[in-house]
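Student:
Attend to each token:
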Amino acid sequence: MEGEIRRVEGLTVTATASLSKAETAYRWIRERVADQTYQPGHKLVLAQIALELDTSVVPVREAIRRLEADGLVTFERNVGARVAMVDQGSYTRSMETVAILEAAAVAQAQGHLGADDLDAAEQINDRMRALLDDFEPAEFTRLNHEFHEMLYRRCPNERLCTLVELEWDRLNHLRDSTFSFVPERALESVEEHSRIVALIRARASAQEVERAVREHRSATLHSFQNSQTTTAPTTDLQTDSRKDKS
């Protein structure tokens, strides 16, 4: 059956049987957590969200429960739902998870990536390289996400892709840009991107591609951890991310 399509504050919402009101609310809130419209600690008022989505509180409450299970929202008695606060442990766990999941997704996707996909990935990487002379962490991070998405999006396992995207959302929530903390990592990252694309073009084994992607993701985490140890071991990620915003 043809769905009703409408706009809700910039989000296109298709009301079909496959996209319930609870799913719509879940995606709408998650998007705002990811882009930091809702900052860590922000109180989520269910009635207000329901009003904005033109729905009842019931599907919003269901969406909040899912977000709580995802670790993006916390719920406290007599306080209500809030966007989860940031801590270095959460960032580390998400980076470790992304390294494993995304590596597996790219390994599965490589047989479905065409020359056009790889050309597009290299063009994105070239744009990242062009930013190195006059470094812009936020734009570099945005392009970095585009590059990685270009490689894993052809993964035939939709559930695996969804899990990768969820962990990327967590990372977006946890910091604006890792490269704000470790700008020296940017050049290494671009070079590693080139090697990953070269492996896929050369039809390397799935194991080789998976290992290269996992090591690439892990190297960024290790650079960040080293920077925190040597420069500010007690720094709160939330405070630092606010300082780095431009």
